[in-house]
Amino acid sequence: MKYRNLGNSGLKVSVAGLGSWLTLGNTLEQDSSSSLVKKAFELGVNLFDTADVYKRGKKKEVVHGVAELALGAAIKELPRHCLVLATKCYFPLSDDVNDQGLSRKHVLEACDGSLRRLGVDYIDIYQCHRYDPETPLLETARAMDHLVRQGKILYWGTSSWTAPQVAEVVALCAEHGLYSPISNQPEYNLFARGIERDIAPTCKRLGVGQICYSPMAQGVLSGKYLPGQPPPPDSRGADDRVNKQVRDYLTEDKLQKAQSFKALAEKHGMLPTNLALAFCLQNDNVAAVLVGARTKDQLKENLKAVDLAVSADVMRELDELFPVG
Questions:
Q1: In this structure, what are the phi and psi dihedrals at residue 24, rounded to the nearest 5 degrees?
Q2: DSSP-derived 3-state class of residue 125
């Protein structure tokens, strides 16, 4: 495993982290969740990412916090000081008008809820899951600063914020002497390269690192989804519980391009999954990519990308196939 500093902080995270959005406590039962987390730790992963809103349930039977509960149970036997736990708040957890957003009230209460579900005394990276236009930005920054000074969180970050939004909050923190965010969590993959235009350069200048999600485009870049055919029965795309977001990638043009990408990877003696992850890690503002593996074998295969070097020639071919736009 390799490790990188997150932003301009001294915190080192494994370049591959284990995500939990659609896996831990959701498509995976607790025994499988615990086994996967422990295997990741054995393989050198120290970054484990989750969120209070990651849920399980169908229709009206929605239960929030199950991923945090599953991760908390999985890490009970692991050394806490060796783990970098990241979670998030913002999305509604109930119908109550204040049980959402980034107000001081919700941020503080949501943090306490995450601590209880994870079963820990502190969270390493507490992230604003989205930008909240209804709450003064300074209020949110002060709430995060308060949690740091209390020792409930060590660092804080953002998720899916724009470059101007990150720049504004960093400036506010500097002006008011507050702890500043050290990370942002964007979607980043060969289909979605938008961060290269503005967010990554801005964050690099401000000392904010990227923890990227969906580096394999919901698995589409693996090449397992074939044009003109239904998703494989054991895939995420075929699972109605978790396939809402993957549908955006299951268009005919993207599936055709994914097959071209698979051929490109194989031409250079690489697996498409590994090349997809290695591509993201070529960006020097990316501290880590989050993998959503469901099995130990998938996890071990994904982690081979850590040692994969992508040549300038291969990068040029990728740029031609997936232009930034």
A1: -60, 125
A2: strand
Question: What are the backbone angles phi and psi of residue 213, rounded to the nearest 5°?
Answer: -110, 160
Distance of CA 116 to the CA centre of its chain: 21
CATH of the domain at 91: 3.20.20.100
Report the distance separating Cα 99 and Cα 164, nearest Å.
26
Catalytic residue, from 3, 54, 90, 131: name it: 54
90 is catalytic: no
Domain boundaries, position 14 = 3-321
Residues 210-219 pLDDT 10s: 999 999 999 9
Tell which residue, 55, 53, 49, has the closest CA to residue 20: 49
Domain total for the chain? 1
Cα 200 to Cα 195: distance, rounded to the nearest angstrom? 5
Q: pTM of the predicted model, to two decimals?
A: 0.94
Q: Which alpha helices (DSSP H) does the chain contain, by range?
A: 30-42, 66-74, 104-118, 137-150, 163-176, 199-206, 252-267, 272-281, 296-303, 312-321
Amino acid identity of residue 320, one-letter, is E
Helices (H) and strands (E) in the chain, counts: 10, 12
Site of tokens 């932003």:
7
Each residue's pLDDT tens digit, 217-235 = 999 999 999 988 887 777 6
Cα within 13 Å of Cα(47), Cβ side: 27
170 phi/psi in degrees, rounded to 5:
-65, -40
Report the candidate in 173, 162, 106, 108 with the shortest Cα–Cα distance to residue 137.
Answer: 173
Distance between CA atoms of 173 and 181, rounded to whole angstroms? 9
